[in-house]
Amino acid sequence: MTGLNESITADDVARAAGVSRWTVNRAFKKDASISPKTREKVMRAAEELGYVPDLRAAALASDRSNLVALLIDDFTNPHKLVMLERLTRALRSRGWDTLLVNTLNREDTGPALLNASQRRVDATILIGIQFDDSVLAAAHSARRFKKLIIFARTSENPNTISIAVDDAAATKEIAEYVMTRGYRRPLYLAGPRTVSAHLMRKETFQEFWQTHFNVTPDTISVEAYDPALAGQTLTEELSGREREAYPDIIVCENDALAIGCIDVLRHHFDLQVPRDIAVIGFDDVPQAGSPNYRLTTYRQPLTEMANYLVDVLESDETTKLDKKFLGHLVTRESA
């Protein structure tokens, strides 16, 4: 293959492949009507000549830029990196480019959204914990993009599209597992509470336990999905209890919190997991399966969710696009 040559045009490829310029253009469009044999012939000629289509010209010729802004925060949570990898892989495989913005804090989110809307993006995707009602309302009022998508969280804001795991169904599966395994003194460790883009895991677990045992389980929370912060919070909670008042299982809103708990239980309290206290998480980050943690957790179907997000981007529909997905419980030694 020769190096990419900006002087090579679609007409050059058409002559080399023995087809029309129109056929060359269709060969580079995902859903265009063209035979596999002809597409292969065009692609072979393009590779030999070092031709790539001018995406900027194609964008100017249509109302679609094929560029999305991806606003993300909370990088202490390892699951964010997994989501970022799955999303960008799905987007790139179908011809979409990404403008990545690290939103540093809640005050930074509004300006970041406004900045994204000025970049001629087709959609803005939000992944994080800082997108409450006021931020989303401001984004909608100033928006110049077509779609505002909340990924991996459920938003009640009518101007957004939510693509998320079914938190209620997932948490009920976790609670059923905790109950059938014989645990009776759960402690629920929740993450930060947001107003709009919210997880319903804590509330669902509490309701389940209240229904089945007529008691509301103990709950503590942290302000960020940070393993160190989770460990510090758990240390403070257990240090104020007698040993017989310890929980028999800690149910965590995500794996970052669960990993922090396991570290503290082992290295601060000198307890064994799960013999003394079991731990269960949510997300199935790569560290969850490592020998250090062997964490029982709920795996979100991120690849399926990411592919659906691209379907949403390519759809002409703008309403009734919210979708919830089912994952599955992954059982390991921690619970």
Low-confidence stretches: none
CATH topology of the largest domain: Rossmann fold
Query: What spatial form do the alpha-carbon principal axes imply?
Result: elongated
The largest pleated sheet is described as: 6 strands, parallel
The number of helical segments is 12
Tell me what you see in this structure:
With 335 residues, the chain is an alpha/beta fold. The chain folds into 3 domains: 10-53, Orthogonal Bundle (434 Repressor (Amino-terminal Domain)); 67-165 and 302-325, Rossmann fold (3-Layer(aba) Sandwich); 167-299, Rossmann fold (3-Layer(aba) Sandwich), CATH 3.40.50. The chain is 41% helix and 16% strand. The chain has a 6-stranded parallel beta sheet with strand order 2-1-3-4-5-11, sandwiched between helices. Strand 1 (67-72), helix 5 (78-93) and strand 2 form a beta-alpha-beta unit. Helix 1 (10-17) crosses helix 2, helix 1 (10-17) packs across helix 3 and helix 5 crosses helix 12 (302-314). The longest helix is centred in the N-terminal third of the chain and has 16 residues, at 78-93.
Structural key phrases:
Rossmann fold, 434 Repressor (Amino-terminal Domain), single chain, alpha/beta, 335 residues
Structure, briefly:
The chain has helices at 10-17, 21-27, 36-49, 55-60, 78-93, 106-117, 133-142, 167-180, 201-213, 227-239, 255-267, 302-314; strands at residues 67-72, 97-102, 123-127, 147-151, 161-165, 186-190, 218-221, 249-252, 278-280, 297-299, 323-325, 328-330. The chain is of the alpha/beta class. It has 3 domains: 10-53, 434 Repressor (Amino-terminal Domain); 67-165 and 302-325, Rossmann fold (3-Layer(aba) Sandwich), CATH 3.40.50.2300; 167-299, Response regulator (Rossmann fold), CATH 3.40.50.2300.
